[in-house]
Design goal:
Length: 379
């Protein structure tokens, strides 16, 4: 099993800096409830404190708090832990999401957006992470061992506001958020699945169908997103290709790709943030969208340096683009998240201010070394 995991790691696109929490380094790993709580305190408490200090926001000014963490759901909740730590006000609207997979970061943004529509003149804080400490798989099932190799520690905190005065200082405006759920499809539902093995060891299985399901969910998602963001010329070409594919013999066959037109999303977006779920995921989405290597650079570099940080990976990628000085006022960013269920969620942001690349973020200390050439291994 060590040989298998070593081979997966060699081909994963993850570099030596990617971090796992201290309890996993112990022999045997410390999978206690306390170690999970300590991981949350280390990641989220630090991230939230840095964000509040950076923007000089007082805790009493936070009106909405949304957290997401798929595999660890304590009582009191993660949002309650944050409220207790920072002393948020008693009438704060708080929600903790669990079991939503790696796409939960976009789900949290969607929920915060809906809450801000209802509660005027409010400030929302969204925090995203995955807890690794209690969730390492101890068995020998290869489909479950892959998750041990890919996931790493990380987290993100985001402030959203509907206050008119905050538009002057905000970096981005949320333009669109499209959610796709393929849970009614049995293959999609089971492609990322938590269950015990024959020996009773619980782990998350990653099916061989995962990349196909991700591509299908993306196609479904962009059918809706395309009508919102693509120029009419691209929409007409895409619609006509779908009509031809359906009326031609064998048009519904997945192998019949000649008639399917892939819209040129580079006409709608300057930047792409693809969930850093693994090298295979990035390759598949890059191929599906007909993107160039430089379009997925932020995703590959985030995967290499930080690993698969689950729902927070998209924010590490956006920070990479900012630290490189590539995001300009007026630019549009497409964040694409995938998660168990199976889900594909897209968020479209428009940059509405001048981004200063010298402002400290997760990449500031090492950005001069990137991009770098990621080692390639044979099959």
């Amino acid at each position: 099993m060590i040989d298998f995991q070593s081979k997966v790691l060699e081909r994963s696109g993850i570099g030596p800096e990617a971090c796992v929490p201290d309890p996993i380094h112990e022999i045997p790993p410390n999978v206690s409830f306390q170690s999970a709580q300590e991981e949350i305190e280390l990641v989220l408490f630090t991230t939230v404190q840095d964000l509040l200090n950076k923007h000089k926001v007082h805790t009493k000014n936070i009106d909405i708090l949304v957290s997401n963490c798929s595999l660890f759901c304590p009582t009191p909740s993660i949002t309650s832990m944050i409220i207790n730590k920072f002393g948020f006000k008693s009438n704060i609207k708080s929600v903790s999401l669990s079991g939503m997979g790696c796409s939960a970061g976009m789900l949290s943004i969607s929920l915060a957006k809906d809450l801000l529509r209802v509660h005027k003149n409010s400030l929302a804080l969204v925090v995203s992470m995955e807890v690794l400490s209690p969730n390492g798989y101890k068995g020998i099932n290869k489909s479950k061992l892959v998750a041990n190799v890919l996931f790493r520690m990380g987290g993100a905190a985001i402030l959203l506001s509907n206050k008119k005065q905050d538009k002057k200082i905000a970096k981005y405006e949320l333009k669109h958020l499209v959610r796709t759920h393929l849970g009614s499809n049995e293959n999609a539902y089971k492609c990322v699945y938590q269950e015990p093995d024959e020996a009773g060891h619980v782990g998350v299985s990653l099916s061989r169908e995962l990349l196909k399901v991700a591509a299908l969910s993306l196609r479904t998602n962009i059918t809706t997103l395309g009508s919102l963001v693509l120029p009419y010329s691209e929409q007409i070409r895409f619609a006509w290709s779908e009509i031809r594919r359906r009326i031609q013999p064998g048009g519904d066959n997945n192998n019949n790709q000649k008639a399917r037109y892939v819209p040129n999303f580079k006409k709608s977006f300057e930047h792409f943030c693809i969930h850093a779920g693994g090298k295979g995921v990035i390759d598949a989405i890059e191929d599906s969208l007909k993107l160039e290597k430089e379009d997925s650079e932020a995703s590959r570099m985030a995967l290499y340096r930080f690993g698969n940080t689950s729902s927070s990976s998209l924010w590490y990628e956006l920070c990479y683009l900012e630290a490189k000085g590539r995001v300009k006022k007026g630019d549009r960013v497409w964040q694409i998240g995938f998660g168990s269920g199976f889900k594909c969620n897209s968020a479209v942001w428009k940059c509405i201010s001048d981004i200063d690349p010298s402002v400290k973020n997760a990449w500031s200390d090492m950005i001069h070394m990137y991009p770098l050439e990621i080692p390639q291994f044979g099959c």
